[in-house]
Specification:
Belongs to the spermidine/spermine synthase family. The chain has about 280 residues and is an alpha/beta fold. The chain folds into two domains: about 5-55, Spermidine synthase, tetramerisation domain (Spermidine Synthase, Chain: A, domain 2), CATH 2.30.140; about 60-275, Rossmann fold (3-Layer(aba) Sandwich), CATH 3.40.50. Helices cover about 30% and strands about 35% of the residues. It has nine helices and twelve strands. The strands form two sheets. Strands 8-7-6-9-10-12-11 form a seven-stranded mixed β-sheet, sandwiched between helices. It has a five-stranded antiparallel β-sheet with strand order 1-2-3-4-5. Strand 11 (about 210-220) and strand 12 (about 225-235) form a beta hairpin. The protein is globular and about 55 Å long. The model has no long low-confidence stretch (mean pLDDT about 95). The structure holds S-adenosylmethionine (SAM). S-adenosylmethionine (SAM) binds near residues 111 and 157.
Length: about 280
């Protein structure tokens, strides 16, 4: 008998993936956590019935989220990751030799523990000496911490459930306060195809706080619409302009300096939807 996982992308639009085996399921304090092995996407993490990351395309998402802001910052020594409990963003962050410490703050310690056991290719960097892992609400953390960072990455789930707080205007204001001078933030900011109004609202929230705001996009086939957006807010350098190149030893599969520049090329409809002149 065939078993399929189905996620509703929009009312009237669903994506299904055939499951080979159910690896792990758990009702945590915050969400329904499932890890599947699927026929086409490989291993897959699902939270509250929404695909978070898959073996087949996670490299596109994580390399885009991490290397664009880190390579356009002059010296990213201290990095904060909010969310990202699977460990993929941490893995990419710790490839940068400039990074002395990367702090990951996820509200759900059970996602981190499940990733350590069942998502080894994402979570390999949790054991790195430079990694500091805190189980806490990201909104509360940025509002109260005395730590300061060069780069803040927001690797949240969609703006419903526990992640809703990570899209509020006060969250972006608090991020600006925890950044050192010249700091950069970068957040995953949803689908230009499925939810363009959400992309627009987040862009304007960030642009009210940061002197430089830049939107870029990348293909992520397992996310709604197959196309994803990221928004950077910068207190200094322009995230569009890379300052360094990735190293060969990082063995990147998506990011390159040419791709960096191309990700920022926005099509006319997206510019209009977001209100970018
Ligand atoms: N790349 C994924 C995406 O775009 O769907 C997100 C991956 S990551 C698994 C999302 C993480 O955000 C989850 O581990 C979840 O526990 C965490 N999270 C949700 N709300 C949070 C909050 N308020 N503070 C910190 N982490 C949060």
């Amino acid at each position: 008998m065939e078993v399929w996982f189905t996620e509703e992308w929009l009312p009237g639009l669903r994506i299904s993936a055939q499951i080979k085996s159910v690896v792990y399921t758990k009702r945590t304090k915050f969400q329904e956590l499932c890890i599947f092995d699927t026929v086409e996407f490989g291993r897959m993490l699902v939270l509250d019935n929404v695909i978070q990351t898959t073996e087949k395309d996670e490299y596109i998402y994580h390399e885009s989220l991490v290397h664009v802001p880190l390579l356009s910052h002059p010296n990213p020594e201290k990095v904060l990751i909010i969310g990202g409990g699977d460990g993929g963003a941490l893995r990419e962050t710790l490839k940068h030799p400039q990074v002395k410490e990367a702090t990951l703050v996820d509200i759900d310690g059970e996602v981190i523990e499940a990733a350590k056991t069942y998502l080894p290719s994402w979570s390999s960097s949790f054991s790195d000496k430079r990694a500091r892992v805190l189980v806490e609400d990201g909104l509360n953390y940025v509002a109260t911490t005395r730590d300061r960072f060069d780069v803040v990455l927001v690797d949240s789930s969609d703006p419903v459930g526990p992640s809703e707080a990570l899209f509020r205007p006060e969250f972006y204001s608090s991020i600006a306060k925890v950044l050192r001078p010249g700091g950069v933030m970068c957040a995953q900011t949803e689908s230009p195809i499925a939810t363009p109004a959400v992309v627009r609202d987040i862009f304007h929230r960030i642009s009210r706080v940061f002197p430089v705001t830049r939107l870029y996009t990348a293909p992520v086939p397992s996310y709604p619409g197959g196309w994803w957006s990221f928004t950077c807010g910068s207190l200094g350098s322009d995230p569009k302009v890379p300052m360094r190149k990735p190293e060969e030893s990082w063995e990147l599969k998506f990011y390159s300096p040419e791709i960096h520049e191309r990700l920022f090329i926005l099509n006319p409809k997206l510019k209009k939807d977001v209100g970018i002149i």
